[in-house]
């Protein structure tokens, strides 16, 4: 139960969490009938990587919380589905092990830590492992207020709460794995010698102490210079910020509010696409991240101007339910929904999706 709430929950009143998905319902798809949909082409590219369909995997921390195979299970499913896997800085598998686990393009989600040496270490390791892109998450200057986690005791590492006691007892094997095998260790941090020496009171406390509230766009310029490959900024929602991202050296933006887990009352990413696309389409690629649960959500986002969509909970529920097979099942359902929606809307290639296929409800 605590793990479910960690996965499912959002910040404060969860207004943004709900809004992320609800907002899709305010768009209607306009079919263009008799358009020869005998073959639907879902292939596309993002930051120079060819992918089989316009959905990628968002970075999420601590995958081994949900299933013992953790990140590896998701990488393998991403490879089978011809898409990009994103590894979180607070993942439970190392940059190197993820690279070895599968043969799909990889993106590494990074934070610019106070200790720039740690950030540098990640960059060098990603270069060595041929990661296709780096993704800087900027919507977490402080942790969001996820009240469900406070109630159930899963804010950082699992904490004992009487309310969750029965659930922990029922899942003793899970608890043993987490405690005895240290499966929840943030291994990318602890595998850096320099950081490992400084982790004293726990990795999560160390990470929190390293989140730099004084970051500015100058730091993005620094990162772009250090990395020099495709750089994605994750957590932007306004045209102005996206413009600053482009000016600072980013090649793509992830319109995202962290799945409603950070600033509550932030707008839904889908509602931000058209303005950003109109202003910056020729300078940035646009990834819509948040609230995607149905194939028609993907088609709507692309028609509004996104290049691709990205999903978090959409694969995490599958991971929790059945490991790699569960992620594959979730991706199978979403893939078939995207394909079916394309046929029903009368568009045989994602490259042809545009505003003529979508309207805001009157
Ligand atoms: C359990 C969980 C853990 C997450 N961990 C991270 C993380 O470590 N870094 C990050 O940038 N985003 C993280 N996110 C946010 C996702 O990358 C993504 O923005 C979000 O899940 C998209 O919304 P969706 O779940 O509705 O698809 C996390 C989301 C969830 C649900």
Which features would summarize this protein structure in a list?
globular, 13% strand, TIM Barrel, binds flavin mononucleotide, 12 strands, 362 residues, eight-stranded parallel beta sheet, two-stranded antiparallel ribbon, alpha/beta
Can you give a write-up of this model?
There is one protein chain. By secondary structure, the protein is of the alpha/beta class. It has one domain (2-360): Alpha-Beta Barrel (TIM Barrel). 45% of the residues lie in helices and 13% in strands. It has helices spanning 2-8, 15-22, 70-80, 95-101, 116-128, 147-152, 162-170, 172-180, 187-190, 193-198, 203-210, 217-227, 239-247, 269-280, 295-304, 313-345, and strands at 27-29, 44-46, 49-51, 55-57, 85-88, 106-110, 133-137, 231-236, 252-255, 285-289, 308-311, 358-360. The chain has an 8-stranded parallel beta sheet with strand order 4-11-10-9-8-7-6-5. The protein has a two-stranded antiparallel ribbon with strand order 1-12. A hairpin with a 2-residue loop joins strand 2 (44-46) and strand 3. Helix 3 packs parallel to helix 16 (313-345) and helix 15 packs across helix 16. Flavin mononucleotide binds next to helix 16. Residues 7, 20, 58-61, 88, 90, 109, 137, 234, 256, 258-259, 261, 289-292, 311-314, 316 line the site of flavin mononucleotide (FMN).
């Amino acid at each position: 139960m605590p793990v479910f709430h960690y996965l499912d929950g959002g910040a404060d009143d969860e207004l943004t969490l709900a809004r992320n998905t609800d907002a899709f319902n305010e768009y209607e798809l306009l079919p263009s009938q008799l358009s020869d949909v005998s073959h639907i082409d879902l292939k596309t590219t993002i930051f120079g990587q060819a992918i089989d369909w316009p959905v990628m995997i968002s970075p999420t921390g601590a995958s081994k919380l949900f299933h013992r195979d953790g990140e590896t299970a998701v990488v393998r499913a991403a490879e089978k589905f011809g898409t990009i896997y994103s590894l979180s800085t607070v993942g439970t598998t190392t940059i190197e092990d993820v690279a070895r686990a599968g043969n799909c393009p990889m993106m590494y989600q990074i934070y610019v830590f106070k200790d720039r040496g740690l950030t540098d270490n990640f960059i060098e390791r990603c270069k060595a492992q041929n990661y296709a892109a780096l993704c800087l998450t900027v919507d977490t200057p402080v942790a969001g207020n996820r009240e469900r986690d406070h109630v159930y005791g899963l804010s950082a590492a699992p904490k004992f709460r009487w309310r969750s006691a029965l659930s922990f007892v029922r899942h003793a094997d899970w608890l043993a794995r987490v405690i005895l095998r240290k499966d929840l260790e943030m291994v990318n941090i602890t595998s850096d010698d320099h950081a490992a020496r400084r982790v004293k009171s726990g990795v999560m406390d160390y990470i929190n102490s390293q989140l730099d509230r004084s970051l500015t766009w100058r730091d993005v310029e620094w990162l772009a210079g250090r990395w020099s490959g495709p750089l994605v900024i994750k957590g932007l929602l306004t045209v102005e910020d996206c413009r600053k991202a482009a000016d600072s050296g980013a090649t793509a933006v992830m319109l995202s509010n962290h799945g409603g887990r950070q600033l509550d009352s932030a707008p839904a990413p889908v509602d931000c696409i058209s303005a950003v696309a109109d202003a910056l389409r020729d300078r940035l690629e646009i990834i819509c991240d948040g609230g995607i649960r149905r194939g028609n959500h993907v088609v709507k986002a692309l028609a509004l101007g996104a290049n691709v969509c990205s999903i978090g909970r959409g694969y995490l529920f599958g991971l929790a339910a059945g490991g790699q097979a569960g992620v594959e099942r979730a991706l199978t359902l979403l893939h078939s929904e995207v394909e079916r929606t394309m046929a029903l809307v009368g568009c045989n290639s994602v490259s042809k999706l545009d505003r003529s296929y979508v309207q805001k409800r009157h």
